[in-house]
Specification:
Elements (H helix, E strand, L loop, with lengths): L3 E2 H4 L10 E7 L2 E6 L1 E2 L13 E3 L2 E3 L3 E3 L2 E3 L1
Parallel strand pairs: 1-4
Antiparallel strand pairs: 2-3, 5-6, 7-8
Length: 70
């Protein structure tokens, strides 16, 4: 479970530091769970946030089982 959802505090936050808590491979893609995130997960008609983590493009952000996967 994530420690904090930074996007609720500042929807315009575009740079932050955090810790990677989990990495998994699924269908040939890597998913990471961060301790904190400013990336908004898709849901309720809202598209997910996109951006870059350590020079790797974030294509999708989704929430499953109280975790936010990037």
């Amino acid at each position: 479970m994530i420690k904090d959802t930074l996007y609720y505090k500042n929807a315009y936050l575009d740079n932050f530091e955090t810790t990677v808590k989990e990495c998994i491979e699924e269908n040939g893609k890597i998913k990471v769970v961060l301790e904190e995130t400013a990336f908004y997960p898709e849901g309720g008609g809202q598209p997910s946030g996109i951006g870059i983590i350590n020079n790797i493009k974030v294509l999708k952000v989704e929430e499953k089982a109280s975790k936010i996967y990037h």
